[in-house]
Amino acid sequence: MPDKILVVDDDRDIAKFIEVTLVTAGFDVVVAHDGREALEKVSERRPDLVLLDIMLPTMDGFEVAHELRRHAHLTGMGIIIVSARGLPEDRLRGLSIGVDDYIVKPFEPDILLARVRAALRRIQQMRSLSPLTGLPGTVVIEQEIRRRLDRGDGFALLYADLDSFKALNDTQGWDVGNRVILAAARVLDAVLTRFAGADGFVGHIGGDDFAALVPADIAEEAAAWICKRFDEEVQAFYGPEELERGFVEAVDRRGEQVRYPLVSISVGIATTRVRAFGHFGEVVAVATEMKNAAKRADGSCYAIDRRTS
Fold this sequence. Notes:
Blueprint: E1 4-8, H1 12-24, E2 28-32, H2 35-45, E3 49-52, H3 61-69, E4 78-83, H4 88-97, E5 101-104, H5 109-128, H6 138-151, E6 156-163, H7 165-172, H8 174-196, E7 201-206, E8 209-214, H9 219-234, H10 240-245, E9 247-251, E10 257-261, E11 264-271, H11 280-295, E12 301-304
Helix pairs in contact: 2-3, 7-8, 8-9
């Protein structure tokens, strides 16, 4: 489905020129000629991106942008101001409202398209970010894996999942649970700095599940470090007696006293070092299988696929 763009300009010739440029490039385009009509079209059509002139009848472009940014359900929609007014104070006012870009007329069609595509890429990435950890979500994770497969890059997928997390959530509450997830995110993110650099990637699948992409030759070293570092981080969420025992005691929903292990992390590794993967689903399936194998052991550990086919 093509991205939907709303063009707002009271100059009908300019609006038509922008519309034709965008339609020719494959976008779905809606046009409005004043501020109030723009707000109506946003409500009706929910565009992915708005190209907004400043000098408009009924409401100027700044007022329209401010109104759009007031609504939480529209935070994922991009706004680019396209105006003949190129003064620094105009640009600053637009950016302070929360617009994504500012294009000064006149402009070349190729420049407009490049800026539009860049804005849409940023919007797509922002929509995929986890609101808790700020890490990219499943859409971007899949894109990153597919990109490496298409280029023939050597890499390893590390699928990390917390153990006994539900028990911690039930006994200590969701606030502590969120802090543990954030601790896991910090550990996974630190892997990039320590081992992978620009070749690495970390994403938050959801809940207590994470994915990391690292160079194939350091996958085991990275996974072992994740396990060790997470065990150090998680100690902050337990008391001395619980750490000494290695478990917590709590009453379950049936009123019975039960013991829960301390939260740990399991990492499954699928790597191109020993086999070639034909598609995205195959990589994920192998990493999931290895993650499940790691979860059968006690405490934080990893399992790596060493099969050649």
